[in-house]
Design brief:
Blueprint lengths: L1 H24 L2 H4 L15 H4 L6 H12 L2 E6 L2 E6 L2 H10 L29 H11 L5 H27 L7 H16 L11 H12 L4 H6 L6 H14 L3 H21 L12 H7 L23 H32 L1 H15 L15 H13 L5 H4 L13 H10 L1
Helix pairs in contact: 7-8, 8-14, 9-12, 12-14, 14-16, 15-16
This protein binds protoporphyrin IX containing FE and 2-acetamido-2-deoxy-beta-D-glucopyranose (NAG) (2 copies).
One 2-acetamido-2-deoxy-beta-D-glucopyranose binds next to helix 1.
Length: 419
Amino acid sequence: MMILVILFVAAATGLVAYYLSAKKNITYWKERGIDGPPIKRPLFNHLDYLLAYEKPSCFTLEEWTKKYGPLYGIYCGFLRILVISDPDMVHEMFIKKFEYFHGRMNTVALGDVDKNPRIHVFNARGARWKRLRTITNPSFSVSSLRRIYPIVEDACNVTTSFLDKAYAKNEAFNIHPYFHELTMDVISRVAMGQKGTLQFQNPDVTLIKNVFLGFGGSKLEHYLYLAPSLSEYTRHIFMAYLAITAAPLRRMINKLEKAVRERIELKERGLGAPAGEPNDFIDIYIDAIDDSIVDGAYKKSGDKVIKRLTEDEIVGQCMIFLLAGFDTTANTLALTCWFLARYPEIQERLIEEVDDVCGDPSKPIGYDQLPELKYADCVMKETLRMHPIAPFAASLPPRVNAWNRRPLATFRLKRALWS
Ligand code: HEM
Ligand SMILES: *[C@@H]1O[C@H](CO)[C@@H](O)[C@H](O)[C@H]1NC(C)=O
Ligand SMILES: *[C@@H]1O[C@H](CO)[C@@H](O)[C@H](O)[C@H]1NC(C)=O
């Protein structure tokens, strides 16, 4: 009985302390003279807005920016976030003070990105990010892009033939799915070892679309924001939840784990691609496998980076290439088409440029013509300017995870901005 009473008193004290700390936390910005939008729901604070499914956070942030200016504070659960949009400040943080902002604003469900084994270049920070990035960079070198060009061309040819069929029906149709098929085909063939085209017969297109639909939609994930500093532990609950509900994200990861494992075993049996002659990104990564990596502290320059990856990181890297290469490119292409349809005079000018640069029937169209297609480049960039894709990737800019035991993002922000 006595023990129960003591436990009860301890729990009650804990809750009161927690409540007071939470209350104090939401005066943090005000105390520093920084304005911000009102809170929607106590404890969760602005989280509901930021993870709202019906209205992506970029629109909410845009509205707040109009109202509160280029610098305001919000609270994502107990995570304190300073939202900035002043170009000079953004430049200061992303470029000049990069040594303080070398991590992205990730979901709390990842825990500590220095420790979580399954982290990729998009989520990593500091020395780990630099290591992963050093391995990834050559994938996008000119020689690598030249090498994969025939695959991209073939995938485009397949899409074109599907589009021709749709066009022949002489009815309006939605072009977006065609680009989803195209980008999935390209990324699967150049990065994941898929042999030949699978357009309109690849079940993974539906799966990956569902992965995107699932992001931010879990209430459990919202609760993790109530104790950001415990996320290194609570993330396991979240992962278990994904497994139990057979969430699309979990199913995608399972597939990638299996693909990577199979490839490693093939290699061990001497049946894989020879070292230095990779078939795709997985081979490049497997050549660099090493499960005993310890990252040091991040320094802006002078670091010698080992070009090594763990098996977990390989799965992570495949995941991010799949996710980042699929939706972004498909949406950009679809939006570009939409604009070209709406502005026929731009379309005419673009056709003229393509005819000029690629019109000579004696010369095959290839990688070399791409830099000459200057107007095409402008059209794409203008599309992205009007409809920024993946703004969340950069719209909450503290590139340091505040829920880490490291100094807080807000503190770092302050130091970087006002020192
Ligand atoms: C039109 C197409 C694309 C758009 C609009 C786009 C957009 C973005 C944005 C806004 C970021 C954040 C940048 C920052 O933090 O400063 C980003 C990062 C990233 N993207 Fe893309 N992306 C596109 C295509 C791709 C493709 C095709 C891949 C891979 C195959 C890819 C892989 C990545 C990776 C790995 C990162 C993290 C880089 C790092 O932190 O070092 N993206 N992307
Ligand atoms: C208040 O904020 C600090 C710093 O972000 C954090 O360590 C603390 O856990 C927060 N309070 C609560 C109740 O989460
Ligand atoms: C794509 O189609 C064009 C035009 O029909 C053709 O010249 C080219 O060889 C095709 N590319 C591939 C990789 O099959």
